[in-house]
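Q: I'm building a small set of examples for a reading group on sequence design. Run inverse folding on the following structure and report the sequence directly after it, with nothing in between.
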């Protein structure tokens, strides 16, 4: 009932009403707290289920993603593994079955660092294993699991291509190797004969005492200090034995122990490659000597640039400092046009824009129900490409709509807002239309055919590790178009040769729109080829894990099955969005209750409970749920995050104080620094002394001196120093010390943060 949307406080009343309908009298309604505890019971069972299923697998993969919600970083996690179907009480897995993706919940982390993510992974796995290990089910099965077991079967991780996600994967991979070495060392230690073990440990103990300084020093230590030294010694012994055992293994056995693969989400590969193509496309205009798309300045910058952008004066205008700053801050092009159209026709704020009016207008014009404009206001894969296709397909209708907006849609004084004016001008600008057509051609020939093979219907069982040939085909296809542009710009544009998979166009109307505009866009070919060049470079970079001779390329079929990964990170993207929507509608829903609801629903937990759990397990789950409810874990976690931020604030405050004090001292030294007086002395200066001279001159207000980091080599530093000295030395009185120098703030106030 709660999962369906019923408030927890209303569940008891709802049960009574439903009972009345069926003639069942319920004399005691469930309270809100009891409902909450029932939800938590589902979460406990789901965590026991995760551990139970981990114990049935020899290889798993994990995935994660993070975002912020109400100022706090949240992280979603999933695991891909093979599971029983639980039908008819079945509790075994079929090795040939396809893995399922299990939800591990959403966690709040202190920050967005990879170190914190690694801790979060260990915490969530150890929590799930703890619930299982203390349960009657574990006693019945005689099973007990540790985080080391998880690392042992952990074979792969996939996610987006952000550096922190890769660092998290590397951190877990390092933990996996360290724990494997320890396990080998412990096995080697346990396998020694008793007397051999005694002599071996005695030798190590002698080394320990000698390292500390002798038996007298050892005897002088407290019991706590001795225990600490003994613990460190045992870790050293285990690690040493483990490394010896590891080196003695055959290469194939070492590979199996260390097998860990990272794979990037295919949706992010396509999105990043689209972005790489767009960057190269924008850089192509000056290369071919064309001004490029019109400037699409925001309201503030448009007011500053109004006269400059007037064609009658722009050719001879000289930009002031404010106008230059506004010009540099303004953007242009096809992607910007799509973003503007999305903000007007499908804004994420339903009080802004022309969303319903847009749908009604297009439905009227086209004679059939028209969908909403692609959602470019939020982060959506392919949204800008879809928006370009929409604008090109119905270009005439959108131009007409802008006139209707100006003259009829609730305007006291008929006019367009700045954003609407920008869109109208862009839709009438040949260079902007050229970029829109380029985006359409790329999406229809590369993006859509690629996405059909990684995310389309029937691809749910696709293993990311099997997609190396596809990514090679993508790069080869883009290169073939660069080698033979007639595939796109010949007399006949055929999908059989133009698209990646040779299948019909995803949006034939958009292609027809491009062909209609092509004669009026003389630079379309050059701009499109630039887009494809930029995209190819990005594809190579973002598909590097499939490189020939790499780990994935050399994996056997068995290893690929052990490290099976989904082709996209959609599960985590969706989980983060679902959490944000859920807490927006139910702000009092705790994180534990949300995770319990979501894991219970998504992980088929009820069937697991029916097939595996006994009455003793159900009683155990009820006790654990009551304990969770009384512990106030949500409050403790929030307080932990606050404490962490307070400590961070104190550290940053102290760091800023130290930097300000150092900057003040540096300014004092620069004021006293004697300036070089002879030109011949310059060539004898070392680079640090050149830096001092340049900084001293900048502090004294000598113009045209950049920060030292902007001069790459000694020669360029001297080229800057020589004229600055010539300008300064004849009359130093013309210059005064600058107060706003490029150093950290010299305010030495140290704030107390408690």
């Amino acid at each position: 009932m709660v999962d369906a949307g019923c408030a927890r406080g209303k569940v008891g009343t709802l049960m009574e009403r439903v009972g009345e309908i069926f003639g069942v009298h319920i004399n005691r309604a469930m309270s809100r707290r009891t409902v909450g505890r029932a939800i938590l019971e589902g979460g406990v069972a789901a965590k026991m289920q995760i551990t139970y299923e981990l114990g049935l697998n020899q290889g798993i993969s994990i995935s994660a993603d993070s975002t912020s919600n109400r100022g706090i970083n949240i992280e979603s996690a999933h695991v891909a593994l093979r599971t029983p179907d639980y039908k008819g009480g079945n509790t075994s897995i079929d090795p040939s079955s396809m893995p399922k993706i299990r939800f591990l919940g959403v966690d709040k982390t202190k920050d967005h660092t990879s170190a914190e993510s690694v801790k979060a992974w260990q915490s969530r796995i150890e929590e799930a294993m703890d619930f299982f290990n203390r349960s009657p089910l574990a006693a019945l099965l005689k099973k007990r699991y540790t985080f080391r077991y998880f690392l042992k079967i952990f074979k792969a991780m996939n996610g987006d291509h952000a550096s922190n996600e890769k660092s998290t994967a590397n951190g877990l991979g390092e933990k996996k190797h360290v724990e494997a070495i320890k396990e080998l060392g412990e096995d080697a230690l346990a396998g020694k004969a008793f007397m051999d073990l005694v002599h071996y440990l005695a030798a190590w103990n002698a080394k320990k005492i000698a390292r500390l300084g002798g038996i007298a020093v050892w005897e002088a230590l407290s019991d706590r200090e001795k225990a600490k030294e003994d613990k460190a010694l045992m870790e050293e012994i285990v690690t040493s034995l483990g490394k010896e055992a590891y080196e003695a293994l055959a290469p194939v056995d070492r590979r199996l122990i260390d097998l860990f693969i990272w794979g990037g989400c295919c949706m992010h590969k396509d999105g990043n490659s689209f972005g790489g193509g767009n960057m190269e496309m924008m850089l192509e205009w000056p290369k071919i000597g064309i001004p490029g798309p019109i400037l699409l300045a925001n309201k503030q910058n448009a007011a500053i640039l109004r006269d400059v952008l007037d064609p009658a004066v722009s050719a001879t205008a000289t930009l002031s400092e404010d106008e230059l700053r506004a010009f540099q801050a303004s953007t242009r092009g096809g992607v910007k046009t799509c973003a503007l159209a999305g903000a007007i026709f499908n804004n994420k704020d339903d009080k802004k824009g022309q969303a319903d009016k847009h749908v009604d207008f297009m439905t009227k014009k086209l004679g059939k129900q028209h969908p909403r404009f692609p959602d470019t206001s939020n982060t959506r894969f392919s949204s800008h490409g879809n928006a370009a296709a929409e604008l090109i397909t119905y270009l005439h209708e959108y131009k007409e709509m802008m006139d209707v907006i100006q003259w009829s849609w609730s305007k006291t004084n008929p006019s367009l807002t700045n954003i609407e004016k920008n869109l109208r001008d862009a839709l009438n600008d040949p260079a902007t239309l050229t970029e829109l057509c380029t985006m359409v051609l790329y999406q229809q020939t590369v993006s859509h055919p690629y996405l059909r093979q990684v995310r389309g219907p029937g691809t749910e069982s696709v293993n990311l590790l099997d997609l190396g040939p596809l990514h090679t085909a993508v790069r080869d296809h883009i290169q073939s178009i660069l080698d033979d542009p007639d595939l796109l710009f010949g007399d006949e544009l055929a999908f059989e040769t133009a698209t990646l998979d040779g299948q019909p166009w995803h949006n034939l109307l958009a292609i027809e729109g491009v062909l209609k505009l092509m004669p009026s866009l003389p630079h379309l070919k050059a701009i499109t080829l630039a887009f494809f060049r930029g995209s190819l470079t990005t594809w190579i970079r973002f598909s590097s894990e499939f490189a020939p001779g790499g780990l994935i390329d050399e994996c056997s079929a068995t290893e690929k099955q052990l490290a099976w990964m989904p082709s996209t990170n959609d599960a985590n993207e969706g989980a983060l969005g679902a959490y944000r929507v859920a807490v927006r509608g139910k702000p009092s829903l705790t994180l534990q209750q949300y995770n319990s609801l979501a894991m219970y629903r998504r992980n088929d937990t009820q069937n697991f409970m029916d097939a595996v759990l006994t009455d003793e397990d159900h009683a155990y789950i009820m006790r654990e749920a009551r304990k969770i409810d009384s512990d106030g874990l949500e409050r403790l976690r929030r307080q932990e995050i606050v404490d962490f931020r307070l400590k961070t604030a104190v550290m940053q405050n102290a760091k800023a104080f130290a930097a300000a004090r150092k900057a003040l001292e540096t300014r004092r030294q620069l004021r006293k620094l004697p300036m070089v007086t002879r030109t011949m002395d310059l060539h004898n200066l070392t680079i640090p002394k050149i830096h001092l001279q340049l900084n001293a001159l900048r502090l004294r207000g000598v113009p045209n001196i950049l920060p030292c980091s902007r001069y790459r080599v000694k020669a360029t530093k001297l080229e800057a120093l020589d004229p600055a000295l010539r300008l300064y030395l004849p009359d130093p009185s013309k210059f005064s010390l600058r107060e706003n120098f490029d150093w950290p703030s010299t305010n030495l106030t140290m704030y107390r943060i408690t």
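Residues 312-316 have pLDDT under 50 and may be disordered.
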